[in-house]
Description:
Strand order of the largest sheet: 4-3-2-5-1-6-7-8
Number of strands: 17
Number of helices: 15
Helix content: 40-55%
Strand content: 15-25%
Number of domains: 2
CATH topology of the largest domain: UDP-N-acetylmuramoyl-L-alanine:D-glutamate ligase
Largest sheet: 8 strands, mixed
Radius of gyration: 21 Å
CATH architecture of the largest domain: 3-Layer(aba) Sandwich
Shape: globular
Amino acid sequence: MFTTYGQALDWIHARLRLGIKPGLKRMEWMMEKLDHPERRLKTIHVGGTNGKGSTVTFLRNILQASGFQVGTFTSPYIEQFNERISVNGVPITDKDIVELTNFILPLANELEETELGGPTEFEVITAMSFYYFAKMNPVDIVLYEVGLGGRFDSTNIIYPLASVITSIGMDHMNILGDTLEEIAFEKAGIIKSGVSLISAVKQPEAKEVIRNQAVSKKAPIYQLGEHFEITKTESNDKGETFSLKTAFSQLEDLQINMMGHHQIENASLAVMTCLYLNQFYSFLIEEKDIRMGLKEAFWPGRLEVIQENPLVLLDGAHNEEGITALVNVLKKRFKDKKISLVFTALSDKKVEGMIQQLDEVADQIDFVEFDFPRASRAVDLYEMSHSKQKSYTVDWQNLLMGKIKNLNENEVLIITGSLYFISEVKAFISKN
């Protein structure tokens, strides 16, 4: 039995030692023991390489503006662990974490003694979320973000109202495969028989794999650029505006307060999903709710402004696709400013391609490292860069304090890379 939040969290995090164990049998075993709480929930399942968190937050805000109680299950967290299980954007309480952990502990111990082996950290948290939303804090709908891949992800025991795939990119290749087709196949594993799919996947080879999976499961597909379309876009001081044409309605001049065309695509997925819920599942969602929800949506660590003058941004661009989106924003919005970058990444990412893109836009790039099991060494990142203005250090805290203090008005500082690093930076800056 755990009596404190700290004890409960230590036990959960200690399960990281089990690593990643793809497969659904442990989840199915726990759900059977819990009398299948996942079957009591109305859910939306959101998968993809990038954009899952932003799409979930657009969805949540629209549904919340419509008057619904909305649960979310997301990862990783940025400021506190409890964010991973939230209701209307409010994280679960420490007390509820302790209660849930005590409930799951005997199941985890019993499962450990079987041939399946003990549940991983992510499986434990996923099981906790199902029980929480079904039994402890019932909600109208829960948005489930896939942790890794899709086909064997522990969230993939749900039978959702709709499935969403945001994008396909070359990430987690050691687990998901070496080609876009292989990765798309794993992501497409969340498609369920007869359940509609809303997709923003771009690459023809990935789209083909997803379409084939949808057809084989008789799942209707709504593809961005084919079945719903962004008709015009414009950047402004607050973020972006866009118009969206769908089979259900045409919406003009929608405003989001997150930067980048990739966020327009994420918002479009959310809008299309809400229009679908309104049309086929009697979720009363009006245009004013869509507009309000999009405007109010905020996702920490995604081109997040942490200081306005001079400008300092945080962006968790943790893979090549994320870096491409960041670089596009920098080229479009900050071409008249000196761009200073602080970067680090996990060693299992395709780091060289990320650095090559950053070299193109950075006037100065500083490589750092942080205390995390899979973190890259700053010197290794430094040696991959061809920038003429570069440095590296293991003391990222002192580097950041100095750079922020000495930033000029014609400069913009972007702190980017691993989301785990961004989480540490946010905690550090809030204390200083």
